[in-house]
Structure formats: C-alpha cells, structure tokens
Amino acid sequence: MQGYDNTSYGEAFADVYDDWYSDIGDVDAAVEALAQLAQDAGSLPIVELGVGTGRLAIPLAQRVHPTAVIGVDSSAAMLDKLAAKNFEHAPLLVLGDMIDSLPEGPLGVVFIAFNTFFNLGSEQLQRACMQAVAQRLSPNGCFVIEALVPEDPPRTGNSVDVKSLTRDRVVLSVARYDGDEQSAEGQFVEFTEAGGVRLRPWSIRYTSPSQLDDMAAAAGLSRRHRWQTFAKDAFTPDSTRHVSIYAPN
Ligand SMILES: C[S@@+](CC[C@H](N)C(=O)[O-])C[C@H]1O[C@@H](n2cnc3c(N)ncnc32)[C@H](O)[C@@H]1O
After folding, report:
1. Do 127 and 87 belong together in one domain?
2. What is the overall mean pLDDT for the chain?
3. Atom of ligand 1 nearest to the CA of 98
4. Edge-first strand listing for the sheet containing 183-192
5. pLDDT-based confidence at 195, cuts 50/70/90?
6. Residue 175 above 90 pLDDT?
7. What is the DSSP string of 34-100?
8. What whole-number distance in Å separates Cα of residue 108 and Cα of residue 101?
9. Maximum CA pair distance of the chain?
10. What is the CA(33)–ligand 1 centre distance, in A?
C-alpha cells in the first residue's frame, strides 16, 4: 500500500486498539505459557516484538517480576497508551523497528503475538527478523510466534464488510487479498455525523506454518512445539491459528 510504513498501523489504531481487540485471545493462558518458557530459559530478559498497548506484556511483567520484560514497538502512539496504564511492574519500552531495534542478547524468550510477524511486509523482512532474533537468543531461549493459518486455497479478491453501525457512525472494513503474493491489505473506514471520515490502514504479508518453519531453519532455529493456542490445544490440519515455538539448534 503506497505510503504505508512500520508506524502506519500503530499510529492509526492506537486510539481504538483496546476497544476493538480486547477479546482476541486467552491472556491468562498466554502469560502462563510465556512465563514457563522464560523460566526454562533461565529467567533472562523476555522481549515482545510489536508490544502495542501491552495486552500481554503488562500482565506478563507482573507475573515474571523481577525478570525483565521489554516491549519493542515502532509506534509512539501505541507505547503512549501502554505507558498510561496502571501497573506495578513496568515493561521496559523501546521505540523502534523490531528488526533494527531489537535489544542485545542473550535473551530468554522473544515473542510476537496476534499476527504481528505478518506486519513485516516482505519475505526478506521476515527472514531478517528471524535472523536478528536467532542471533540474540540464549542457547536455552526460544522465539514464540502466534499467527493465523492462511486459508487454503488462499483468499483472493476484494471485500467490504460492516464492522459497526449506529445512528451517527458507521465503520466499514474494506480489504483486498492477493493469494499469489500472500498479502492482504485494507482500511477500516469510519464515517461519523460529527467528525467526517477517519481511515485506519493495515497491511500484512502472511506465511503458512511450514514456510515459517523454513525461515526459522534458515536462521538456525528449529521448531520445538506447535500448539493451536497458548492454552496448548493440539494443532491439527483444521486449526486456523497456531503458536509455534522455535529454539536454537
Ligand atoms: C496487531 S498489534 C499487536 C499488539 C500486541 N502485541 C497485542 O498482541 O495486542 C501490532 C503492533 O506491532 C507494531 N508494529 C508493526 N510493525 C512493526 C515493526 N516493524 N517494528 C515494531 N513494531 C511494529 C504496531 O505498531 C502495533 O503496535
């Protein structure tokens, strides 16, 4: 999408993110699974890539204190939302790109949730991210990716859906899918009686679970687990999501 960069998503969605996406997963199960992995890794720093408003990093930081939780995000608006929340043990925050601004290692657990890996808009960037993480993981560390399983056959074409509709406000979800390019992009278009039009763009380049395994292997990581969810439900051919755990060879 022309003009779209690594700050576009966060800057556009920060004001509505917690309202729109509060129910996207089992936070308690994610925190428990990540805390266990961190303990196995020797309580070294935990890093969340694309930490957003802290949906996972905040409760995780309370759970694993004094182990450090570091959140990296390229959007100042998202990090401002996180920092404005009340909590006892603060995640450390890094404003920057998840590849270029990844903290130095050795790191215990690096994780990336809710399809955020697919915000890296090309195979090249996704491979670079894998490499950067692999270089910093401790030998007992791991990289955790939570992501969707692409539809088979992949979705292609355009769609317009109604996200919400009230007397004085409508939000339309407009999207374009390209199965050959493994990409999807769209806009949430908000019209209000009082405030005109607001655009919230998104763009992803998705990969299949096996393509992720290949990228990980090229970076020197091998898959230790694949669950359907952070609650460790078994991953099956019918799963529409996965949580994959990669560790140094
Ligand atoms: C879908 S949100 C996920 C937020 C949070 N991890 C969660 O699970 O609720 C994606 C986040 O990744 C951030 N992001 C996107 N591309 C990024 C990049 N290249 N480097 C760092 N952060 C990025 C966005 O600003 C946004 O906060």
Report:
1. yes
2. 97
3. 20
4. 157-166, 169-178, 183-192, 196-205
5. confident
6. yes
7. HHHHHHHTTS--EEEET-TT-TTHHHHHHHHTTS-EEEEES-HHHHHHHHTS--SSPPEEEES-TTT
8. 17
9. 57
10. 20
Nearest CA to ligand 1 atom 3: 52
* 167 and 68 belong to one structural domain: no
Same domain? For 69 and 43 the reply is yes
Output the pTM of the full model.
0.97
Residue nearest ligand 1's atom 6 by CA: 51
What is the count of structural domains for the chain? 2
10 Cα nearest atom in ligand 1: 25
User: In percent, how much of the chain has pLDDT > 90?
Assistant: 98
Q: Are residues 137 and 230 in the same domain?
A: yes
Read off the pLDDT band of 4 (50, 70, 90): very high
For atom 4 of ligand 1, the residue with the nearest CA is: 52
Contact 10 CB / ligand 1 (< 6 Å): yes
229 occurs within a structural domain: yes
* pLDDT attached to residue 220: 98
Question: What band does 84 get if pLDDT is binned at 50, 70 and 90?
Answer: very high
CATH code for position 166: 2.20.25.570
